[in-house]
Design brief:
By secondary structure, the protein is of the alpha+beta class. About 40% of the residues lie in helices and about 25% in strands. It is elongated and about 115 Å long.
Length: about 400
């Protein structure tokens, strides 16, 4: 089945099928992009394509091998990447989509963070704390140790004190919880940064240049607190000021009003390369799989009267057609049309008069034997033959 024949028979259900799979695939790409599971998903996708091609071409041993390997890999990947899968499923939460989850009771953990940071500053304990917002930071952080713990002053103190093996690096706060510790960030190469800034400040600036996260830096030498984001850097002098700035930063912004044209254009053009690639991949997979599904087609085919005796003519009807419903694999059914489907009626032994003639499977000539005739309507035709 060619690509053109696939789209020539495209139904509304098929378009809906492609659209739904495109939306799911694109959001999976967004959710897992920058995570360790992303490369594994690409590997699974390649294996899925190989498996589909092998099954389509009838490669028995290759298909059997991938069926066994697929089951083992799926279980193994669920175990290895359970954290990334859980985070992706959390993003499907309708409460979060409505804006009811992410900022629920944010004031509690922000207050705990503000008080704990000032406690570290008073003790001259250096710290680097990432507050993740909309953009995931997994793509930019390296060597992090997963923790998944509630935020508390005691835990921050135990992590960032010099005796701790986890103090050298950044801490990631995701949705108000400690997600990763001992993370290394990309350093900023901006020559305009203040000269007194050390490695922690440059690491914080480097991350803020690449995403929308906020980063809190506690200077070990001076006991000073600095809050950085893509919008700039602010020295913090009190827990109340840190609390206010973090709360302002994590509040959902009210987007400017846009016209319907601007909304449509933004929907299409935002990350258009990722969307185009995902849509192309979904369409290719759909074309490959569509040929293997059962498909029904109904054609109205004219009856071809054959071998009419000399001296006999058909008075009525002058033209007669029947509806033939066929079923088979889509790759076979999509090639059928009124030009290669014939319905013939042999009248070589008939004489004058009106008579009903049954239309059976024997009267229908198919282009191949891979299609089944489901029904013929009407099952018989009434012809009136007269002498010339």
């Amino acid at each position: 089945m060619s690509i053109f024949s696939s789209f020539a028979d495209l139904r509304f259900q098929d378009a809906l099928d492609i659209l739904f799979l495109f939306i799911v695939a694109y959001h999976l790409y967004l959710w897992f992009k920058g995570t360790k599971a992303f490369k594994a998903l690409i590997g699974l996708l390649v294996m899925g394509v190989i498996f589909t091609v092998a099954r389509t071409w009838g490669l028995f041993m290759t298909t059997w091998f991938f069926q066994i390997l697929w089951q083992v890999l799926v279980i193994l990947l669920i175990i290895l990447f359970q954290s990334e899968i859980r985070q992706a499923l959390e993003r499907v939460n309708p409460l979060q989509a409505l804006g009811l989850r992410k900022h629920t009771r944010a004031g509690e953990w922000v207050q705990v963070a503000a008080d704990a940071v000032h406690m570290l500053a008073k003790k001259h304990i250096g710290a680097l704390i990432i507050i993740e917002r909309e953009d995931r930071v997994d793509e930019w952080v390296t060597c992090g140790q997963q923790l998944e713990a509630a935020l508390s002053p005691e835990l921050l103190l135990s992590i960032f004190q010099k005796q701790s093996p986890l103090h050298d690096g950044a801490m990631l706060l995701r949705d108000g919880r400690i997600s990763l510790v001992a993370c290394y960030l990309p350093l900023s190469s901006d020559e305009k940064l203040p000269n007194q800034w050390g490695t922690r400040h440059r690491a914080a600036a480097g991350l803020c240049e690449r995403c929308d996260s906020m980063v809190v830096v506690v200077s070990e030498e001076r006991g000073e607190i600095t809050l950085l984001s893509k919008g700039g850097a602010w020295p913090i002098r009190s827990p109340e000021e840190l609390y206010r700035r973090i709360m302002d930063g994590i509040k959902p912004l009210t987007p400017p009003r846009k016209t319907p044209w601007q909304k449509t254009r933004a929907l299409i053009m935002h990350q258009w390369m990722a969307k185009a690639g995902t849509l192309g991949l979904v369409v290719v997979l759909w074309v490959m799989l569509a040929g293997q599904q059962d498909f029904e087609v109904t054609l109205s085919v004219p009856i071809e009267v054959r071998n009419l005796p000399s001296g006999i003519t058909m008075a009525e009807p002058l033209s007669q057609a029947v509806k033939v419903k066929l079923r088979g694999l889509r790759k076979d059914a999509s090639t059928i049309n009124v030009r290669n489907l014939q319905v013939g009626l042999d009248l070589s032994k008939e004489g004058p008069g009106r008579k009903n003639y049954p239309i059976t499977r024997a009267n229908i000539q198919l282009p191949n034997d891979k299609l089944n005739i489901v029904s013929i309507d009407p099952p018989q035709v009434n012809l009136n033959l007269e002498k010339r």
